[in-house]
Amino acid sequence: MFCQNFCQKMFFRIDSFNIKFFKIKPMICSALVTLSLAGCTSLTTPLIQSSAEKARQVQAPEQWLARQAVVADINRFTLKGRVALINDATRFSANFLWQQRGNNTSLRLTSFLGSTLVKLDVTPQGAVLIDDQGRRFSGSDPTTLLERLTDVTLPIEQMVKWIKGQVTPENSYELTKDNRLAVLYQYHSPLRNPGWQVTYNAYDPKTNNLLPSRISMINTLANPNIGEQRVNLVISEWTLYP
After folding, report:
1. Is residue 4 part of a domain?
2. What CATH number is given to the structural domain containing 163?
3. What CA–CA distance (Å, rounded) separates 234 from 35?
4. What would the pLDDT profile of 188-217 be if each residue is shown by its tens digit?
5. Which among 11, 46, 166, 204 is placed 20 to 30 Å from 182, CA to CA?
6. Whole-angstrom distance between the N-terminal and C-terminal Cα of the chain?
7. Contacts of 199 (CB under 8 A, 6+ apart)
8. Residue numbers of the domain that contains 139
9. Pairing mode, strands 172-175 and 181-185
């Protein structure tokens, strides 16, 4: 089914968490590269803090809070990369383009030959999905719409923040020993209600290690009809806009 059918650019520099933008001429997008599922799922697990380190972080969270403040202000961006989506009903990999402009989200999945597999546009008014046949579907909730038509579960609205490493008040989380986000849990009681678990495996050195470059997500109870949902993201390029 789905898996079978399936710029003016800105550069930036981050100095002490102050982002500066520089315009450059538009560039031709690089050719899409092939990603095997094995390559996308073989990610390095970050080093989690010990209890003593966590206690020190509670006493002196300035660095963590400073990073979160910077990330929260990033609400206009484009990122490119590769994604692997794995559950009992679907298993495929694709290139992705995520564009965020304030409250408006656009996600496009393309094959390694460049053809569009699905395009999802989300605004405060609702969501519109266009499949690989050009058919158009609409709904009020993007996650429900995507799941109904593709057998893929993605928490699109939450990922607007999660994809850049931003936590929300309902999330619990763990930090690395250098006070970067290591693991995010969708809810405060992950043992009782696990929701999504998001692991940040690597950060992009071109963003001064502020923004993620490798993310893995898992939800064991996403949908009983499709089983455990796994999502592995490899982000190759971040572009930020003022």
Report:
1. no
2. 2.50.20.10
3. 10
4. 765 666 689 999 999 999 999 999 999 999
5. 11
6. 40
7. 43, 45, 46, 182, 183, 184, 215, 216, 217
8. 31-240
9. antiparallel
Q: What pLDDT, in 10s, does the model give residues 154-195?
A: 999 999 999 999 999 989 999 999 899 999 999 876 566 668
Strand 197-203 and strand 212-223: pairing? Answer: antiparallel
Q: Is residue 56 part of a domain?
A: yes
Q: Kindly state whether residue 52 falls inside one of the protein's structural domains.
A: yes
The answer to whether position 9 is within a domain reads no
Upper half-sphere CA count for residue 170 (Cβ side, 13 Å): 10
